[in-house]
Amino acid sequence: MTDENRRNKLKFRAWRRGFREMDLLIGSFADATLESLDAAGLDEFERLLNVPDWEVYAWLIGQEQVPAQHAGPVLDQLIAFRYAAQSG
Fold first, then answer.
1. What are the backbone angles phi and psi of residue 81, rounded to the nearest 5°?
2. Predicted confidence (pLDDT) per residue in 12-49, tens digit
């Protein structure tokens, strides 16, 4: 699979998480950052997509501490990411 195909598949998964808040947060993050991630970053992002929505959402809003096995630079970027609503 090419990197472009992989990024497209990850974006698709990011936009179809299960509840709208996660679609907007992770999908927007994917649109903004996946092109700049290397293979290790894509691996980390893919691992995050395999974690249940409610767990990741709790980390993103600061309700729960991030477990050590999920901590990493991509998750740090995602936590720092600020969703901005797009008009239209």
1. -65, 140
2. 999 998 889 899 999 999 999 999 999 999 999 999 99
Burial class from Cβ neighbours inside 10 Å (0-12, 13-18, 19+) for residue 39 reads exposed
Q: What does pTM read for this prediction?
A: 0.89
Which of 3, 71, 60, 84 minimizes the C-alpha distance to 37? 3
Residue whose tokens read 């691992």 = 47
Using alpha carbons, select from 5, 14, 2 the residue that is nearest to residue 83: 14
Assign residue 17 a region (left: φ > 0; alpha: ψ between -120 and 50; beta: otherwise): alpha
C-beta of residue 23 within 8 angstroms of C-beta of residue 17:
yes
Which two structure tokens, joined as six digits, stand for 21?
């808040």
**Amino acid occupying residue 18:** G
Of 39, 37, 19, 18, nearest in space to 78 by CA: 37
